[in-house]
Amino acid sequence: MSPGQIAALVAAGAFVLLVIVLAIVAVKAARFFDEATIAMRKAHENTDPLFVEANTTLTHVNTQLERVDGITANARAVTGNVSALTSLFTATLGGPLVKAAALSYGVSKAVKARRKAAEQPNKHSKRSQKRGAK
């Protein structure tokens, strides 16, 4: 055997080994892609019910948000009405009511002061009467 034939034989052996390694890699890659395809199919089958449930949930949430929005609008209207009523009460009855309270307080203080002043001389006069009698 000549050195050229030996080199050809070694090259042929290396080529056979390369083909075997590539065949093993190709078989494993085929298995990987089959498993990936099966996993994607299962994921696709399981996502449909998830999306349906998510849409149903979002529909319910939107309905509740519309109700809350209505309640908020009603609360805003009630707050405005109460504010207007308070302003009206303050404008119509607040001033006169404060004046009437101040007047009644002043009259009450004046009456108490008069009674106190009326009792002061009586106390002194009773004391002086008692002293004069002794």
From TrEMBL:
Residues 123-134 have a biased composition (Basic residues). It holds the Pfam family DUF948. InterPro entries: UPF0478. Residues 114-134 are annotated as: Disordered. This is DUF948 domain-containing protein. It comes from Lentzea aerocolonigenes.
